[in-house]
Amino acid sequence: MGFSTLLTAAGLAGLSLAAPPSYRPKNTTYYNPIIPGFHPDPSCIFVKEWDNTFFCASSSFIAFPAMPIHASKDLVNWKLVSHVQNRPEQFPGAGNITRASGGWYAPTLRYHNSTFWVINADVDAPTTGTGIFTSKNPYDNNAWSDLTVVEVGGYDPDLFFDKDETIYSQAAVTILGDPFTTDIEQFNIDWPSGNSTPRHFLSNGTGVQPPEGPHIYYKDDYYWLLLAEGGTALDHQVTMSRSKHPTGPWELDPANPIQTAINTTSLFQTVGHADLFEDAAGNWWGVALSTRSGPEYVNWPMNRETVLYPVSWPKGQWPVADKVHGKMSGPLPPKNLKVPGTGAFVKDPDYYTFPPGSSLPRHFTFWRFPHTQNYAVSPRGHPNRLRLTPSNANLTSFPTFDPLAGQTFVARRQVDTLFTYTINMEFSPSKQGEEAGVSAFLSQDLHADLGVVYTNGAPHLRFRAEGPGAPATVVKPMPKSWCETGVSFEIEAFNFTHYSLSAGAKGTVLETFALVNNSLFSTSFTGAFVGVYATTNGHEEGGSPAYFSKWRYQGQGQAIDDGQYYPSNGQRGGGLYSRDG
Ligand SMILES: *[C@@H]1O[C@H](CO)[C@@H](O)[C@H](O)[C@H]1NC(C)=O
Ligand SMILES: *[C@@H]1O[C@H](CO)[C@@H](O)[C@H](O)[C@H]1NC(C)=O
Ligand SMILES: *[C@@H]1O[C@H](CO)[C@@H](O)[C@H](O)[C@H]1NC(C)=O
Ligand SMILES: *[C@@H]1O[C@H](CO)[C@@H](O)[C@H](O)[C@H]1NC(C)=O
Ligand SMILES: *[C@@H]1O[C@H](CO)[C@@H](O)[C@H](O)[C@H]1NC(C)=O
Ligand SMILES: *[C@@H]1O[C@H](CO)[C@@H](O)[C@H](O)[C@H]1NC(C)=O
Ligand SMILES: *[C@@H]1O[C@H](CO)[C@@H](O)[C@H](O)[C@H]1NC(C)=O
Ligand SMILES: *[C@@H]1O[C@H](CO)[C@@H](O)[C@H](O)[C@H]1NC(C)=O
To answer: Whole-model pTM?
Structure first.
């Protein structure tokens, strides 16, 4: 995409995000993505019984804690309220996955019998890694149950509770031995045993391979089967069919696909893997994943994000979805930030000083299960510091790596097209290979790091990236005094295509070590994180700790599809930018 950063004088005056609450049916303007950053495969519900709140779950692959739950009262402001898997013991196998694109794929979130239900498949985990978690309080991590194993036999499992309390699940199942050929198969689940009946064929959708992400709804005496087809890249699309019976046969919507960005020039591509829900006023809404790549599909470091669109679904008729754009309009509930829970709103900036007695915020994320003793807030003698104890494995790890051995790395998602991340570090390495610093990270196979490394008998600043076409490594000697007085790091996404990674003595003007074309990262199922790491690079455990302070993440602008940038965090920061086509 060719974006320039031309500031216009229009400022914020024309934007209505700060407008006072308006009551439906009046439409208000909102901006996609509603849950920006790495939040793919959204499954969302409206729960009247929980004070008219919307809840969404999304995929996390091997990031941990897993399967974030966001809550909102207004569909625009989403707070991270819990994670479905937040304790290793809920399903220990989730930490024992080597492949970067394994882990928890697309969850289905439902509310039934005063209980929140999540069904999912943990791809690459032992076969027992599929099944159901339940909770009676979505604001409390501890309320999420251990996994009740349900043999899904595929991925993207759905959960549908019929009127007679029969529980149907439908999932994408790989057929003909080809990972890109699936069908949708169905089985029944007995609860609470989790026992399931044998699977049977349910649907091929419209025949566009691979059908995935099924969801069944009941409305107006019909069962409705929503599917994702075409794969999660540029051919992604949403299709609908319906039946008088939950097991089919299915009548296809003549208007399929009912939602897609195929053949458009929109910035918002790959629209698919949808879910539908009805709000308190009877308005229907759809969510889906989308990638802000434009049809060029070259630069998309945040990968698949959660977008929202209004749906018109008159009684007994097929649903009609508004197209996904950056700037949208619909009958939103009034603005309401009174969402319970201690987590941050997804669009909030970070400023963390790690004071004594505090803990890591809920949106701080690890790669697989953390070894919690390697992360200490304000340890004795080091107030207002986050201490990282290095892992033997570095961020890339190595072929014989035991996934349960831990990689010392803690990060947050990139949620803005443009952002600045800064942090200070004190680190006095003394052995060959000891290293700590900052990383823009998508997976163990795709990351760009800038750190202090002890090599050739002295500390050096080193930029190093992993991935196809990664820029060359840069190594520069560093004055030893900086180890104690501190080094500052900055990662900046300064335009649509590039990050800069900079470092220098704390409190001075930083030197840029590398510009990284973020197309480096456009091959993953995951999206970008920024954070800090410490490693001995394969040498023995227990190396020199690193002390980090003043963690800041500030969004500087969101690309939207009408040729402009929208300010990060609503009315705060940023400005309007134009796209140069
Ligand atoms: C971003 O900046 C880099 C480095 O200056 C430049 O090569 C690239 O073309 C810029 N990208 C855009 C979209 O302007
Ligand atoms: C982890 O996975 C490996 C390979 O599948 C297996 O041999 C090992 O027993 C697993 N360990 C645990 C603790 O699950
Ligand atoms: C829901 O509650 C009803 C009434 O208590 C019960 O019969 C039914 O089995 C419950 N369904 C599930 C899935 O737990
Ligand atoms: C569904 O699609 C698969 C793969 O193309 C095909 O083998 C199968 O016959 C189809 N089933 C039906 C009922 O059309
Ligand atoms: C996209 O364009 C191609 C080529 O013109 C056409 O065959 C296809 O049907 C279009 N797809 C949709 C969903 O419009
Ligand atoms: C409000 O938005 C919905 C969804 O786009 C649309 O169907 C409806 O016509 C709009 N209403 C008004 C009064 O503009
Ligand atoms: C960024 O990488 C892409 C893909 O390799 C390439 O097409 C593009 O020209 C690169 N941009 C710059 C400014 O180097
Ligand atoms: C990362 O660790 C592996 C295994 O210990 C090692 O071979 C590799 O050189 C390390 N990478 C760097 C950049 O030191």
So the answer is: 0.94
pLDDT for residue 329 is more than 60: yes
For residue 69, what are its two tokens? 């739950």
Question: Residue of the nearest CA to atom 5 in ligand 7?
Answer: 519
Give the model confidence (pLDDT) of 89-138 as tens digits: 999 999 999 988 899 999 999 999 999 999 999 999 976 799 999 999 99
Q: Give the model confidence (pLDDT) of 256-269 as tens digits.
A: 999 999 999 999 99
Which of these CATH numbers, 3.40.50.970, 1.20.1250.20, 2.60.120.200, 3.30.450.20, describes 350-572?
Answer: 2.60.120.200
Tens digit of each residue's pLDDT (9 = 90 or more) over 43-69: 999 999 999 999 999 999 999 999 999
Domain-by-domain residue ranges, the chain? 27-330, 350-572
SS3 content of the chain, % helix, strand, coil (to 5): 5, 45, 50
Instruction: Return the H-helix or E-strand segment holding 123.
Output: strand 115-123
**Average per-residue pLDDT in the chain?**
92
Cis peptide before 310 (omega within 30 of 0): no
Take atom 14 of ligand 6 and give the residue whose Cα is closest. 27
Q: Which letter, b or e, does each residue of 354-377 get, where b requires 16 or more Cβ atoms within 10 Å of its Cβ?
A: beeeeebebbbbbbbbbbeebbbb
Say if CB 534 and CB 413 are below 8 A apart.
Answer: no
List the one residue out of 45, 67, 65, 60 whose CA is nearest residue 112. 45
* Chain-centre distance for alpha carbon 6: 29
Sequence-separated contacts (24+) of 537-540 with Cβ below 8 Å:
537/394, 537/433, 537/434, 537/435, 537/453, 538/392, 538/393, 538/394, 538/398, 538/433, 539/392, 539/431, 539/432, 539/433, 539/434, 540/392
Give the whole-number percent of the chain exceeding pLDDT 70.
93
What residues are in contact with ligand 7 under a 6 Å CB criterion? Answer: 298, 497, 517, 519
Rounded Cα–Cα distance for residues 86 and 369 (Å): 9
**Contact (Cβ atoms closer than 8 angstroms) between residue 76 and residue 21:** no
Rounded mean pLDDT, 245-254: 98
134's tokens: 């339940």
Cβ-Cβ contacts under 8 Å for 193 (sequence gap 6 or more)? none
CA distance 443 to 99: 9
Q: In 3-state terms, what secondary structure has residue 102?
A: coil
Pocket test for ligand 4, best of 176, 181, 183 (most atoms within 8 A of CB): 183
- The CATH architecture one would assign to domain 27-330 is 5 Propeller (2.115)
* Distance from the alpha carbon of residue 204 to the mean position of ligand 4, in angstroms: 6
The residue whose CB lies within 8 Å of the most ligand 1 atoms, and thus the one to mutate among 4, 495, 565, 579, is: 495
Residue 526 and residue 540 in contact, taking contact as beta carbons nearer than 8 Å: no
At residue 485, φ and ψ (nearest 5 deg) are: -80, -20
Ligand 2 touching residue 96 (CB < 6 A)? yes
Q: What is residue 569's predicted lDDT score, i.e. its pLDDT?
A: 74
